[in-house]
């Protein structure tokens, strides 16, 4: 049996095992959320203090990331019996929104770690799961490295995993959009095996054959991480390049890609929805602050002070309404994703399939709405101010840049089409998608 076949067989066996995540009453979740918020709010407040200067100076928030890790932010979804808070996804999303309001870069930095914890929650109890929960409790966490640029074949990966002469796994390749990796001790990397069975399948036209995930320790030879992300928003997420040159991967840290939980795309999108909701909250906060602080008013305005001008207040009210709707929308999407988590123990069962459709559609619907409304709120902010609002020192334009960048991650036009196809025709949405170059053997669609 080839290595790729072994990995696939192991993943199928694991996915049928019962989930050990425990259902919690609403009351216990409220109590756990309150306790976690009380612990984390001082850290969130400290994060917010220097957010403008960090962005102006392009200073990576390394100290802020470390403070969050030390305060247990990476353990919010970890079960209580493993030292975590045991929050469900709705309660967790509340805190993601609060953190995004302080600095929108930070929740996205932890996006790979959030998905990795969710994967661990989907695994059966065992030494590997327990060891990783212990690592997280000790402050270890992982970034993300799934994407590549250039001419990679659609569905394929230029990053390869091979056996060396000593029988150890080695990984080589170049990844981009490696959010969080520059801050983390590990990176969650998607790659392809180079064993004979995999190569034969690829030659037959299956570009995704032998696709695996590899947890790569970053403090080893053959690993280089660069802060070369050049987007105009979310500039401090560390979404740059990871180069791997025969880096070591332990046997236990290599698994078939199909082993991942089904709702992973919905979860990744949920993090971005929380970022959008946090940006909207920050826009509302900064609008109120800037309007209250203005002492000069226009001769053709409607009040002697801007904070009493009905036209300005109407704009502020629209911004506040968008922020309210953004938070409610993100939390509604979180409830749908939690539904998929609740059925993950019965993978491919009728209830699980239905829950995953709801999660995918809900997060896509929310993305379609927030991708328009939150950047709009960030633009409306400037209608409440004069030219002084465009001061670089205030950095108020970061809200629009960050919101627009978040909205660009997963092309919203395709999500709108997918939602429409589901709404009109009942078509099941895709759970995983890829980007790359089409070949004659790779059908479009």
UniProtKB/TrEMBL annotation:
The residue ranges of the Acyl-CoA dehydrogenase C-terminal domain are 272-410
- Report the transmembrane regions from the record: none
Answer yes or no on keyword rRNA processing.
no
Mind listing the GO biological process terms from this record?
A: L-leucine catabolic process
Q: What is its EC number?
A: 1.14.14.21
Where in the sequence does UniProt note compositional bias of the Low complexity kind? 1-21
- Chain positions covered by the region annotation Disordered: 1-32
Q: Which Pfam families match?
A: Acyl-CoA_dh_2, Acyl-CoA_dh_M, Acyl-CoA_dh_N
Q: What name has this protein been given in UniProt?
A: Dibenzothiophene monooxygenase
What organism is recorded for this protein? Answer: Quadrisphaera granulorum
Ranges for domain Acyl-CoA oxidase/dehydrogenase middle: 149-246
Q: Where does it localize?
A: Cytoplasm
Pathway(s) served: Sulfur metabolism; dibenzothiophene degradation
Question: Keywords, A to Z?
Answer: Flavoprotein, FMN, Monooxygenase, Nucleotide-binding, Oxidoreductase
Reactions listed under catalytic activity? dibenzothiophene + 2 FMNH2 + 2 O2 = dibenzothiophene 5,5-dioxide + 2 FMN + 2 H2O + 2 H(+); dibenzothiophene + FMNH2 + O2 = dibenzothiophene 5-oxide + FMN + H2O + H(+); dibenzothiophene 5-oxide + FMNH2 + O2 = dibenzothiophene 5,5-dioxide + FMN + H2O + H(+)
Looking up Gene3D superfamilies in the UniProt record yields: Acyl-CoA dehydrogenase/oxidase, N-terminal domain (1.10.540.10), Butyryl-CoA Dehydrogenase, subunit A, domain 2 (2.40.110.10), Butyryl-CoA Dehydrogenase, subunit A, domain 3 (1.20.140.10)
């Amino acid at each position: 049996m080839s290595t790729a076949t072994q990995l696939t067989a192991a993943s199928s066996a694991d996915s049928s095992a019962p989930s050990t995540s425990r259902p919690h009453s609403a009351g216990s979740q409220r109590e756990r959320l309150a306790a976690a918020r009380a612990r984390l709010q001082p850290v969130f407040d400290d994060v917010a203090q220097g957010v403008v200067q960090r962005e102006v100076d392009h200073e990576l928030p390394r100290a802020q990331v470390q403070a969050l890790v030390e305060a247990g932010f990476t353990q919010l979804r970890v079960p209580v019996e493993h030292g975590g808070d045991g929050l469900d996804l709705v309660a967790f999303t509340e805190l993601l929104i609060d953190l995004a309001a302080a600095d929108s870069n930070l929740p996205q930095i932890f996006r790979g770690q959030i998905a990795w914890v969710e994967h661990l929650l989907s695994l059966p109890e065992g030494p590997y799961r327990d060891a990783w929960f212990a690592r997280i409790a000790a402050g270890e966490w992982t970034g993300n490295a799934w994407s590549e640029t250039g001419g990679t074949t659609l569905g394929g990966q230029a990053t390869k995993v091979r056996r060396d002469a000593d029988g150890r796994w080695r990984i080589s390749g170049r990844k981009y959009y490696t959010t969080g990796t520059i801050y983390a001790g590990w990176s969650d990397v998607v790659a392809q095996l180079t064993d004979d069975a995999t190569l034969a399948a690829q030659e037959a036209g299956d570009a995704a054959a032998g696709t695996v995930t590899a947890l790569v320790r970053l403090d080893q030879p053959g690993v280089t991480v660069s802060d070369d992300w050049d987007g105009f928003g979310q500039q401090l997420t560390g979404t740059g390049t990871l180069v791997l040159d025969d880096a070591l991967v332990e046997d236990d840290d290599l698994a078939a890609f199909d082993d991942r939980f089904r709702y992973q795309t919905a979860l990744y999108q949920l993090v971005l929805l929380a970022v959008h909701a946090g940006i909207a909250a920050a826009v509302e906060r900064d609008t109120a602050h800037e309007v209250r602080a203005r002492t000069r008013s226009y001769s053709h305005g409607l009040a002697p002070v801007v904070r009493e001008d009905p036209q300005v207040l109407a704009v502020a009210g629209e911004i506040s309404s968008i922020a309210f709707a953004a938070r409610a929308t993100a939390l509604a999407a979180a409830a749908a994703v939690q539904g998929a988590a609740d059925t993950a123990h019965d993978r491919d069962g009728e209830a699980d399939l239905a829950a995953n459709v709801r999660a995918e559609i809900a997060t896509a619907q929310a993305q379609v709405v927030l991708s328009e409304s939150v950047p709009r709120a960030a633009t409306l902010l400037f209608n409440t101010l004069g030219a002084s609002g465009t001061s670089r020192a205030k950095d108020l334009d970061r809200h629009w840049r960050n919101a627009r960048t978040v909205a660009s991650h997963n092309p919203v036009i395709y999500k709108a089409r997918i939602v429409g196809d589901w709404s009109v025709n009942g078509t099941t949405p895709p759970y995983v998608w890829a980007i790359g170059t089409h070949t004659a053997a790779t059908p479009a669609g």
